[in-house]
Amino acid sequence: MLNITPRQLDVFVQTALHGSLRAAAERVHLTQPAASMALAELERQLGAPLFDRERGRLHLNARGRELLPRAQELLERHAELARFGQGDAQALAGELRIGASNTVGNYLVGELLGAFVRAQPRVAIRLRVANTHAIAAMLLDHALDLGCVEGPVAHPQLELRPWREDRLCVCAAPDHPLARKRGLKPVDFAGARWVLREPGSATRATTERVLAQLPPGETVLELDQVEAIKQAVAAGLGIACLPEVALVDALATGRLKALKTPFLDLRRMLSLLLHRQKYRGALLEAFLRSL
């Protein structure tokens, strides 16, 4: 009969998420030798190693990847049982790992997290900001509990839920020829020099959809941060298609000018992204309700 303890599962999960026993030991407040013994005992009871050791790092093998979501669920259920036993089942505590694509993480984090953080002060939020492709990859690895992304994600193991609508805006430096021209038409964008987000970004995908509605232009820069693109556009290096929420300050101060393009569809949907195998315990359900 197996005698696996929550501590052993916690060491396993933290090792899987952080790639080293040292980091896992710090997270679960053990010495490294004690964490190593806990992991070794778990592997002994399961009769197989859970990690491949490569250059001092631990990488989940196939058995470990299969165990990870189950171990996370058991730990969450154990925490829920502890709260129930203390007569405090409604008082949530613990940690929620959320991934946000760049627009959400940099400009809408208050709207995403504010209500939940105010309602649940004992829950720690760990926010990871990356592009949509990276957020989806982390969810598939069970490194996140939830993602909030800017673009569509098509993967059979991931569920996409609409959150809120977002709009993009084509912008230029105030002295750019297109900024001085009235009554813009698609033909005016022929040969335009564009500053784009990096491949894998949802803003890049939306921009490419916009570019398909316009005459051919030229990509002069690819940058992985919206603020860097704003600086490049303000310097006159090209024009860009960026989220409206990211342009509020630059438009208000006159550093950038919004180009009127009623002939372009610049709407998109921001969405919540969840792993279909993820256990949706009290923490996650409470967060989803807050939205």
UniProtKB/TrEMBL annotation:
Alphabetical keyword list:
DNA-binding, Transcription, Transcription regulation
Q: Report if keyword Transcription is assigned.
A: yes
Q: Which residues form the HTH lysR-type domain?
A: 4-61
| Superkingdom, natural source | Bacteria
Q: Does the keyword Transcription regulation apply?
A: yes
- Show the Pfam families listed in the entry: HTH_1 (PF00126), LysR_substrate (PF03466)
Query: According to its UniProt record, which protein family does this protein belong to?
Result: Belongs to the LysR transcriptional regulatory family.
Name of protein:
LysR substrate-binding domain-containing protein
| Record organism | Fulvimonas yonginensis
